[in-house]
Amino acid sequence: MRLNTLYVLWEVGRELHRVQYDTVVSFLGFWNYINCYYSNKKKTAHRAITGIRNNRKEVFLSHRDKYYTKYEKYSYKKVSNSDAAKESFCQCFPEFSDKLTTIYNLVNIPRISSSYLMRKDNRLNVIVPASYRKVKNPMGMLEGIRLMREDDRKMLHIDWYGNKKNGIACYNQMIQFIKDNNLNEVVTLHDSTKEMANRINEADMVGLFSTSEGLPNAICEGMMLAKPIVMTRVSDYKKLVDSENGFLCDAKKPESIAQALSIAVRLDIRSMAEMGKKSRQRGERLFSEEAILKQWKALL
Does the pTM of the predicted model rise above 0.85? Predict the structure, then answer.
């Protein structure tokens, strides 16, 4: 059911006037607008903290969102869940740069029921949890795999888990490329699953080959599950991955993807375990409940 804007505005205003909150936190455009609108009213004055949940400039610059964003002048702080989103917003609205801060999403890993066997079948098993869409760069990844030396490809297996609903054409293109280039033993495509944490736990490494990303949840979960990472230079890669816990490559250069995977497949067990340990340590610093609550408490 579509909410009536004036009705919602009226009802939220009544609630704010009744309770007299000190601080109100909101996360999406329409609710950010309401939050800021009432933070400037004497009867409902409060400190407004608003959120950013997108890193796409075209969204920020839509007619509707530009109107909402005008009211950010009444906000106290604007919280992004990634530096990438913060930077995109700042480029569109530099006048609010002093209000921007980043607090990552809390990563809660559900109970794990699967077991992990390192280098199962004597191959590096990489999981890619991503939808079948062009922005996830599946063809760039496949071309990178095709460019690898045959001996290196034999040491690699990729499991891609994704939703086909809005990407069936991309999925079919991947299937054809895999068939044409004899990669059936290297790449397996799966439907999306509710057991992703267990599938990540079974893998040796988590991969992301996108051309653009917000905060990549799969990478964050992989880090909390002590997995090395291979990813393109998107989103907050500078904070997420370096040579201590994984490999970086360029989304638009298949040869860069090939090089990263070729080095990864030749990691010894001790190095893989150490990388996984570093991933977990970094994940704890960035995404743990303790770290996130500490930042929100400081802000509030």
Answer: yes
